[in-house]
Specification:
Blueprint: H1 13-32, H2 36-46, E1 53-54, E2 65-66, H3 71-77, H4 79-104, H5 111-122, H6 125-156, H7 171-174, H8 176-195, H9 220-228, H10 231-258, H11 267-293
Antiparallel strand pairs: 1-2
Helix pairs in contact: 1-2, 3-4, 4-6, 4-10, 4-11, 8-10, 10-11
This protein binds protoporphyrin IX containing FE.
Length: 303
């Protein structure tokens, strides 16, 4: 008698539904050009989270489904959710970096333009305070998710590989945590330097608080020129911009990966695009201290 049991046929509606998931995932991945995992994520969000939340699966295999009625809790608890938090907050911080660079480049238009811009921001607290609070929250969440993911990865592989020589990982990818911490240290210094205008750390002996222009606005132009005429400070900014852009070059391409927008066809374009954007940002920001320190831009403000 033949006793070997064949694959069990689905009997209940729930079993039938679960068996259909691989097919649905294949349809999504074919139509949206996504990989299987991203398709599963998309499906997961599309389903009513209070009814069913899928927590795994690859290549069309559904691992398990668990009920959960709070998508926020899912975001903060699962590895995938933390990756989303890191990607979305990173994207917002990236937009700030672009906006801030464009604002700062107005220094090349002369004192009037950048001082007017600074005065506009300072005199609109309803714009600046939500932006400041948002930035703080994004930095906090970005940092928290990065730490959580790093700790989870370490816990998953407690013993380092015997041959830990990095083969494919780029320098930027291997230094994400350290690079991120240095960027945070730079931001703290930068806030003390230009936002709080703390005299003790600008190394020029001058008090930026007293700089005012003929319109009685804060003279941001003079503050930047005097600030970057100090070689140690300008050098520290250049180093930090370099690390920021290294961090961005890897972070940007990881963001596409985490959001499921990276597949084999787009991967080289995204990776190359991220490097180009990071280089443009580096040139944009660095042009200011370099122009001031090396090419003596704005030297009339020193008198
Ligand atoms: C050459 C490079 C840079 C220059 C000249 C510059 C200039 C300035 C100035 C003048 C302010 C003070 C604005 C004010 O309070 O009136 C400021 C604030 C700030 N900068 Fe920069 N910045 C540079 C690079 C960066 C970078 C790379 C970052 C981030 C990674 C950054 C983040 C910030 C933040 C968070 C603030 C505080 C904004 C606020 O709350 O008012 N800056 N920057």
């Amino acid at each position: 008698m033949h006793t070997e049991a064949g694959p069990k046929r689905p009997t209940t509606p729930v079993q039938k539904g679960l068996q259909a998931i691989p097919l649905i995932i294949n349809v999504i991945s074919a139509n949206f050009q996504l990989n299987q995992f991203s398709s599963l994520t998309l499906l997961e969000f599309a389903l009513d989270s209070s009814v069913l939340l899928l927590v795994g699966g690859n290549r069309g295999r559904c691992v398990w489904a668990t009920p959960m009625n709070n998508i926020i809790a899912y975001l903060f608890k699962s590895s995938l959710g933390k990756k989303y938090i890191m990607a979305v907050t990173g994207c917002c911080l990236f937009l700030f970096v672009i906006g801030h660079m464009v604002g700062n480049l107005q220094v090349f238009l002369g004192p009037e333009a950048i001082n007017r811009y600074g005065h506009f921001l300072q005199s609109n607290p309803e714009l600046i305070w939500p932006a400041r609070i948002g930035l703080l929250v994004f930095v906090g969440l970005h940092f928290w998710s990065a730490m959580q993911i790093t700790l989870e990865n370490r816990a998953a592989r407690p013993v380092a590989y015997a041959n830990s020589k990095p083969v494919a990982a780029s320098y930027a990818s291997r230094t994400m945590v350290m690079g991120g911490l240095i960027v945070v240290s730079f931001i703290i210094y930068h806030l003390l330097h230009f936002t709080f205008q703390c005299k003790a750390i600008n190394l020029t002996g001058q008090d930026f608080v007293g700089f005012t222009d003929p319109n009685n606005h804060h003279d941001i132009f003079k503050m930047i020129v005097v600030g970057f005429n100090q070689p140690l400070v300008a050098g520290f900014y250049l180093l930090s911009m370099g690390l920021l852009c290294l961090h961005l070059s890897h972070g940007l391409s990881s963001m596409f990966q985490s959001l499921g927008w990276k597949n084999d066809a787009y991967r080289p374009i995204i990776d190359c695009g991220a490097k180009v954007v990071a280089t443009v940002i580096f040139i944009g920001y660095s042009s200011i201290p370099v122009a001031i320190l090396v090419f003596k831009f704005g030297k009339e403000a020193l008198k």
